[in-house]
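Quick look at the format.
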Amino acid sequence: MYPIIKNIHVSSVVLTFLFFFQRGIWMLQDNSVLQQRWVKILPIFIDTTLLLSGITLIIILHQYPGSQAWLSAKLIALLIYIIIGSIALKRGKTKTIQATAFLLAIATFFYLVSVALTQSAIPFLVWF
């Protein structure tokens, strides 16, 4: 069961990033496609799949936030990513704020992926 859930999780990670990135480009372009129903619904489906597969992996592997520093760091970074992403795509009052939040959300996303790949709260030290 683990390989299937992990593949679903990794696929969801890729899809959530690609679609977030695309929506960010549309936001920067003031593209009206952002107002289409499917653009609002698809991220909910992808992110729900991502969350459920992540929770399932936690249960299967018995690695829980709080007991694993890297998993706690990943969870905190995920919350930051959600908040910054929301500012980028919806809540930013100016285009400058939205664009800055968009770049910060991308950086946070790559930190999340780095933490997951290295299983270290400070992944950049592992690479050097």
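Next, a different chain entirely:
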Amino acid sequence: MEPSFLLRNFSKPFKSFLFVFIVVLSIGYFTGLLFVAQTDSTSAKGMVENYNGNEEVEEATVIKFKKGEREMLTILHTHILSIGFIFAFLGVLVWGTELPLFWKKFFMIEPFCSIIVTFGGIYFLWLGYTSLAYIVMISGLLMTLSYCGGVIAVLMALNKKPLQE
């Protein structure tokens, strides 16, 4: 039995809307990753310095100060909510693909686990558990790979012709 919610069966205008939505969403997502690279948070050392400061390091070219509690809560709050909505929207669209159920569930559920691990890890890193930087990096990478996999699946489904009834 075919599910009734298949992206391939949507009208061309609605598929166009979804395509443009995914493109804009992806521009926003990858711009965020560019920002992470700008803050030198792509390495464990850079991530620790970004949240805990580096004012004691004599050879630092850019001095960074430890983020305050209010700033950390704002960062965590806005990122968890906004990225959660990104993956909620993407998850609904992934459900409309013809991927096997395992992959649908993976692309729909894994990103939420990565959100908790990534941003929970950043909070604990800020508290001083700096060895969590590696877990944050791995979960962030897994989140991005899940995003890419979901987007590719959706774009492929939008490109398919409707099923004949």
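The CA atoms of residues 107 and 146 lie 6 Å apart.

See the schema section for token definitions.
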